[in-house]
Design brief:
Largest sheet: none
Number of strands: 0
Radius of gyration: 27 Å
CATH class of the largest domain: Mainly Alpha
Number of domains: 2
Helix content: over 70%
Length: about 260
């Protein structure tokens, strides 16, 4: 009787925790709760890096972090337990096999910060890996279909994106070479070589313009102006390609939903 009861509970938990076993579209209520906890943990860890927030709320932040760590540990153990519902992971050997899958390893990364926190050390980056689990949880239903459409649309335009990148590299090399010839004698520490001038070229072509390196001669300023104008087109080109790709992806996703509703 107890065995049958546990089997029933395990089956229900498997449907709630597995993104493929849930009979309805989208995420199960339990996986939605897990997603909320993941986001909450990232928010807490991020706010904890600010001393003016961490010091007054230190006890509450530590308590919340411990609570979230315990919840992730329970979730990880439950996922290992219910994995046996999948014929591929039945038995002890099957669960060991499941423990080394990418999904299970990401689950483990969500748990490790809780245990490593007692050891010490800076594990902030490890906590941020929890955010990756949002993607693994969301690989189902409309979100998964939308992501596939976006990936396909970008893949169709990879040649245009590659050509835009190559054009940017050519303009970068030419502008850096010109500035090396024009400004090199005036500012050898900043434009004394083409690689040095490339730092200026990258900052200019990406329209960042840090201002730490800039031309001083009249000819150098003229060449810099030409580069700045070229940068406008170079930035607009891949932006336009990506915008068209996303537009196509959204149209495909919309059509997929409409076709599904019609059927």
């Amino acid at each position: 009787m107890i065995g049958l009861c546990l089997a029933s509970i395990r089956q229900k938990l498997y449907q709630q925790l597995s993104v493929t076993a849930y009979p309805e579209e989208g995420l199960s209520p339990l996986n939605k709760l897990v997603a909320v906890i993941i986001v909450a943990s990232i928010v807490i860890v991020t706010l904890a890096t600010e001393p003016t927030i961490y010091e007054p709320w230190k006890d509450q932040i530590i308590a919340a972090d411990i609570t979230i760590g315990i919840l992730f540990a329970i979730e990880y153990i439950l996922r290992l337990w219910v994995a046996g519902e999948d014929p591929e992971y039945k038995g002890l050997i099957g669960r060991i096999k499941y423990a080394f899958t990418l999904r299970a390893l990401l689950d483990l990364l969500a748990v490790l910060p809780f245990f490593l926190g007692f050891v010490g050390g800076d594990i902030f980056l490890l906590r941020l890996f929890r955010l990756v689990r949002i993607y693994t949880l969301a690989k189902l239903g409309d979100f998964s279909i939308a992501m596939k459409h976006i990936k396909d649309a970008v893949k169709e335009r990879y040649m245009e994106l590659f050509l835009a990148f190559m054009l940017a590299m050519v303009v970068l090399l030419i502008s850096s070479t010109v500035m090396f010839l024009v400004e090199g004698p005036v500012q050898p520490d900043k434009f004394g070589s083409i690689p040095r001038a490339m730092w200026w070229g990258i900052a200019t072509l990406t329209t960042i313009g840090y201002g730490d390196i800039y031309p001083q001669s009249a000819l150098g300023k003229f060449c810099c102006s030409i580069t700045c104008l070229a940068a406008i087109g170079l930035i607009a080109m891949p932006t336009g390609i990506m915008a068209a790709a996303f537009s196509d992806a959204f149209q495909r996703h919309k059509k997929t939903i409409q076709d599904r509703h019609h059927h």
